[in-house]
Amino acid sequence: MSGLRHQDKVALITAATDGIGYAIAERLGKEGAKVVISSRKQKNVDAAVNNLRQQGIEVMGLVCHVGKKEHREALIQETVAKYGGIDILVSNAAVNPVYGPMLKVTTEEAWDKIFDINVKASFFLVKSAMPYMKNRKGASVILVSSIGGFTPDKSLGAYSTSKTAMFGLVKNLAVECAEFGVRVNGLAPGLIKTRFSKQLWDGRESEAVGFSIPLGRIGLPEDCGAVVSFLASDDAAFVVGENIVAAGGQLSRL
């Protein structure tokens, strides 16, 4: 950890009450950022805020369903009202309501839900935040996707497709936002030990080889927090439009 390299920055992270999002908020907060976390349930927000404050992190928590325009707008406006602007935006929310062969299990309703949350909400969150990020020194956006966007799992077809779309969203936003001095990059985690991915790893924690992870272990949320901290820092000042894979060596290419 490189000290307080995010001192006095304002970091907004969606879906940040557990798993990868929480680890990102914790890491940025420990490095000096004022963090704003959000999730759909008030009790989860309250618990995460309490845990972060016990570590000496300045944090505000808000309820936000990113699929709802009014929630996204309120999240941005309340953050700006409290802190005056946004330096780091991390879009981490994602859903996967179906599991199994894509052609067999994916309904139109499920497809719409996946793309509304995983792709559409990320774009409109960035669009709403940009007026409060542009021309702020070192401002940075990180969109969290998945290695599944590179190497699909046949049981996660629609989800994987949405994450491939996220790679393109990063590339396009990076070009436009660079004009405002805002860097946009993506994080593509591999198999990370979280509640969201529990169906994949539960009971198989020691089977990293079976998941083709050369490093020999399943990833931890903290591994993702470290990458986001780097991408949001001045150490990554010339990194723009990249989708960084954190997957312990799993193959990743389109």
Automatic annotation (TrEMBL):
<comment type="similarity">
    <text>Belongs to the short-chain dehydrogenases/reductases (SDR) family.</text>
</comment>
<keyword id="KW-0560">Oxidoreductase</keyword>
<dbReference type="InterPro" id="IPR036291">
    <property type="entry name" value="NAD(P)-bd_dom_sf"/>
</dbReference>
<dbReference type="InterPro" id="IPR020904">
    <property type="entry name" value="Sc_DH/Rdtase_CS"/>
</dbReference>
<dbReference type="GO" id="GO:0004090">
    <property type="term" value="F:carbonyl reductase (NADPH) activity"/>
</dbReference>
<dbReference type="InterPro" id="IPR002347">
    <property type="entry name" value="SDR_fam"/>
</dbReference>
<protein>
    <recommendedName>
        <fullName>Dehydrogenase/reductase SDR family member 4</fullName>
    </recommendedName>
</protein>
<dbReference type="Pfam" id="PF13561">
    <property type="entry name" value="adh_short_C2"/>
</dbReference>
